[in-house]
């Protein structure tokens, strides 16, 4: 056997090969090694030439776990409407025969991606590649932990009958190419137009929903809309990510490529984080603009903290999340009052919720929590029906859970707001707001304009 760049890992790789030969099944081989620090975005960009269409990116607000993935060792494309269980089953079955060689506590096999907001909504063409769930196990994944230490995970699915040496050699060649690629400047493209879809019609929907809330049909519903951006050439996700990372470092920054499409965004809203027996969720609802001066900003913050409409909007979310977590956790801590969370364009009411659990998988939490009234409404079923009827668009993965999951069921999911779908020379950007009994259509419309701003800016445009 001639082995190119014989390096650490070949012995455990041989174990995976012989397991595949004996069992007659495909076997995952996952090898993690410590490497010299490298910028995750540089790694993502380096993946463009070989792995364009299969790259992934994730960064949490404190940069405790930053992942950049290039290539797909395996794609989990979920069509089943029971999407959380379907992914959980497929992931666990896939891991059963895996050979995992990882001395570090970081890295290892991790899947990254997201789910649809509403499995019952008719799917529109722009979301074709994503279905009910879309997750990638990267062929190459860079992990940077909170101490700035970097790890490279290589994942290979070995099939019986394959030539082990050539599979190994190809991986080594690709690894060298990724780690040693010189940085190139991305040719940027221009925004030609930004189209809003019938804003007046959207405002009338808000007014009619407020009437139904007054009639006690339901308490809260979140209505969203989209805008379409036209570019003069294909828009690359790399350049959008770079802008989001510069402007929105207090948010979760994510990117999931699926062929020519890419779901990308910077969301401030955590759905759930699970690390062994510790879980953390976030209630985020109620919004106001940032001020132009420090004084004005503080006044606006003070106004938000005391505004009955926004406090009501927020309280509904706290109530539901606490109730959902009660069944899955012991020792639940829920602060009595929200505090402010400030981003570049907007401030929100924020209540963190913490607990302890003995549940095995973060997906159990995702299933229980989604959709929270921060993106759906109360009562949930009624609100989902109303969203399906009133919204003229398919939300796709917007407002749905996105994140990552490792081999022991730990991970983190955020709610994919402040996000958009890049699709060749077009992008669709999404924003919504919580409609309650005191909502005013024009103010809610203005609130969506503020929420659209970060993504519009990240793709190189402006919106009033
Ligand atoms: C629906 C969105 O955001 C949600 C709605 C909010 C509100 O109406 O106050 C605030 C934060 C999010 O829960 C969005 O950004 O698209
Ligand atoms: Mg609101």
From TrEMBL:
Top-rank taxon, per record: Bacteria
Uppermost EC category: isomerase
Catalytic activity as recorded in UniProt: chorismate = isochorismate
Keyword annotations of the record: Isomerase
Domain Chorismate-utilising enzyme C-terminal: 200-451
InterPro entries reported in the protein's UniProt record: ADC_synthase, Chorismate_C, IsoChor_synthase
Keyword Isomerase set for record: yes
S-adenosyl-L-methionine is among the record's keywords: no
EC number: 5.4.4.2
Family in the record: Belongs to the isochorismate synthase family.
Name recorded for this polypeptide: isochorismate synthase
Organism this protein belongs to: Jeotgalibacillus terrae
């Amino acid at each position: 056997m001639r082995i190119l760049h014989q390096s650490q890992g070949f012995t455990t790789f041989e174990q995976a090969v012989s397991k595949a030969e004996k069992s007659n099944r495909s076997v995952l081989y996952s090898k993690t090694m410590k490497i010299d620090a490298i910028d995750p975005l540089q790694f993502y960009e380096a993946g463009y030439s070989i792995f364009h269409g299969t790259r992934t990116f994730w960064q949490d607000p404190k940069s405790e776990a930053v992942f950049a993935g290039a290539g797909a060792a395996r794609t989990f494309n979920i069509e089943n409407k029971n999407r959380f269980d379907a992914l959980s089953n497929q992931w666990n079955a896939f891991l059963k025969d895996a050979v995992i060689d990882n001395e570090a506590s970081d890295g290892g096999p991790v899947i990254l991606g997201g789910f649809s907001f509403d499995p019952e909504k008719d799917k529109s063409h722009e979301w074709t590649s994503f279905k009910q769930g879309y997750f990638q196990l990267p062929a190459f994944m860079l992990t940077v932990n909170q101490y700035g230490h970097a790890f490279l995970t290589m994942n290979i699915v070995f099939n019986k009958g394959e030539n082990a040496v050539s599979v190994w050699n190809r991986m080594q060649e690709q690894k060298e190419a990724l780690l040693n690629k010189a940085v190139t400047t991305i040719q940027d493209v221009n925004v030609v137009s930004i189209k809003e879809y019938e804003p007046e019609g959207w405002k009338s929907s808000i007014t009619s929903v407020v009437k139904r809330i007054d009639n006690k049909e339901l308490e809260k519903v979140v209505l969203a809309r989209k805008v379409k951006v036209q570019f003069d050439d294909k828009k690359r996700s790399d350049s959008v990510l770079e802008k989001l990372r510069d402007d929105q470092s207090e948010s979760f920054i994510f990117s999931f490529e699926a062929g020519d499409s890419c779901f990308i965004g910077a969301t401030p809203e955590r759905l759930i984080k699970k690390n062994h027996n510790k879980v953390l969720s976030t209630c985020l609802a109620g919004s106001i603009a940032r001020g132009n001066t420090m004084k004005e900003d503080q006044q606006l913050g003070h106004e938000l903290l005391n505004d009955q409409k926004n406090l009501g909007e927020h309280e509904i979310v706290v109530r539901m999340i606490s109730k959902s977590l009660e069944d899955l956790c012991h020792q639940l801590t829920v602060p009595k009052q929200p505090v402010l969370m400030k981003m570049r364009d907007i401030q929100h009411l924020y209540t963190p919720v913490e607990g302890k659990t003995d549940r095995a998988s973060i997906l159990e939490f995702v299933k229980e929590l989604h959709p929270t009234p921060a993106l759906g409404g109360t009562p949930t079923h009624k609100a989902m029906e109303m969203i399906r009827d009133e919204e003229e668009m398919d939300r796709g993965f917007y407002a749905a859970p996105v994140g990552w999951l490792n081999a022991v069921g730990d991970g983190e999911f955020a709610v994919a707001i402040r996000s958009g779908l890049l699709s060749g020379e077009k992008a669709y950007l999404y924003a919504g707001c919580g409609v309650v009994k005191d909502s005013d259509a024009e103010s809610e419309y203005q609130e969506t304009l503020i929420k659209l701003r970060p993504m519009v800016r990240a793709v190189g445009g402006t919106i009033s």
